Amino acid sequence: MKMIHFSVLASLFAFASSTRGYQMSWENWNGNLQNRVNEYEKPTTQPHIIFILVDDQGFRDVGYHGSEIKTPTLDMLAAQGVKLENYYVQPLCSPSRSQLLTGRYQIHTGLQHSVIRPTQANCLPLENVTLPLKLRQAGYATHMVGKWHLGFYKRGCMPTQRGFDTFFGSLLGSGDYYSHFKCEGPGMCGYDLYEGEEAAWEQDRGQYSTVMFTQKAVNILAQHDPRKPIFLYLAFQAVHSPLQVPAHYLERYKSIPNLHRRKYAAMVSCLDEAIHNLTLALKRYGFYDNAVIVYSSDNGGQPLVGGSNWPLRGSKATYWEGGIRAVGFVHSPLLLNKGTRSQGLIHITDWFPTLVSLGEGTLDEDLNLDGYDVWEAISEGRTSPRQEILHNIDPIYTKAKNGSWKAGYGIWNTAIRAALRVGHWKLLTGVPGYSDWVPPQTFSNLPLTNRWHNERIRGDSGKSVWLFNITADPYERVDLSLRYPRIVKKMLMRLAQYNRTAIPVRYPAKDSRSNPNLNGGVWGPWYKDEKDVNGDDQETNLLTNFLAKKRWKKKSKKKKLKRTPEE
């Protein structure tokens, strides 16, 4: 076994050494994998769990939803698995990630508002038990590759302190796909690529992050014994802005006149190839036959940077269906009803109990989960145990000017931003967010058409309550709040019940100590208390970052990585 591991590492090292920058050949990589012979023994009875979370992929931005973007791998995996067509996430990055890893609504973790900013002394609350921790307790090796975005102001917030054995990726919500730098304003710029709890200067070859993260994931699989269960959480940066992509992917989409849409489409195609190579590695290294692959977007697409949620209403950062109804599927040889579409109601909090149960872990009552075990609903087509979703209650978001207790029948202040789904019904209050429908023709370079103008909502400015039958009207075109006041009242009462269980919002002000210039040019933990490292260790870390940064700059100058104007 050791010889096998050494040969895999040697081949990967030789391959990595032959590449320069992002110009990595998927074809060469595929050839290396094809030449590998699976010499492993029969895998564990506990399934290998591969969770792929992509960033800002719109509902329409996959081939099987009618997109012009070519996604043959995603289409094939979904067609051979179970497509989740009534699947919900949160409208922003941190909220979806927090609910995935805790199985709890935002109101129960204090993360009801916005996202975790890199300048805030804030992170996923340490008292929350995480999905990787529960799987590790069940005997899993737990690895994370990609985007964290759950806070890092102190060491205890880092991924390797929250249940992951290893971590390679970024801590922030976005950044340059090649240089891995991110600015949060003038004089607030820093490096954001980590290996474990240290900046990954030495491992950085200036690769495009989609390729780099996939290579790291494959490397992890190559080194792991498939007789032992593995949980691999692969959280891609793609297809979040900035719109950057290797130039050769753009060649496929010359017919798309809108530059944002063209670049976005190319990024999705690169992502699709990454999933192809990951799937190939799962097969070649002996994991596939006993693996469960979950694919999910973290929120809806952003039309301003090329994403499309058509025919759904709204966009990322809104509680309309376009912000929270996600692309998702499960692919696994272990599924009983393959090649099906699930219409069962499923939420991102459900993955915690579902995957822990699949992994033969324990679910203690004191976890106070909001998620349900939905494996039988997915695998066998049974009725989903979930009948409602609290999309959120955000008490500090901008209040609706015309909202009031009176408009909420004395039950609820409709100025507060909130959204709730119960059965077929969906209720929104406050300011749900950008509410237009954005049809495909909007992405042309032609003047806006009459049809586009007709898709805009002009009469909603005075409203603070909406009610929709989502089953009959998934595009939220017919507001029924005036026709069914009794249902509105019942749902407002349910909102009030949820609100009584909410904890205070955690959204601290900017902390000047977060500036990377005070931390060796690196975004990373800055908050120190008696439980953290002492001052001497802090000075050592600063010196380490400084020296590593100098070596990285020297190495980068030698490489002189080139970019095309289109990147």
From TrEMBL:
Superkingdom in the source lineage: Eukaryota
Record domain Sulfatase N-terminal: where: 47-358
InterPro entries (UniProt xref): Alkaline_phosphatase_core_sf, ARSB, Sulfatase_CS, Sulfatase_N
Record-level Gene Ontology MF annotations: metal ion binding; sulfuric ester hydrolase activity
Entry keyword set: Calcium, Glycoprotein, Hydrolase, Metal-binding, Signal
Co-factor(s): Ca(2+)
PROSITE patterns for this protein: SULFATASE_1, SULFATASE_2
Range of residues in the leader sequence: 1-21
Family statement: Belongs to the sulfatase family.
Name recorded for this polypeptide: Sulfatase N-terminal domain-containing protein
Organism expressing this protein natively: Umbra pygmaea (Eastern mudminnow)
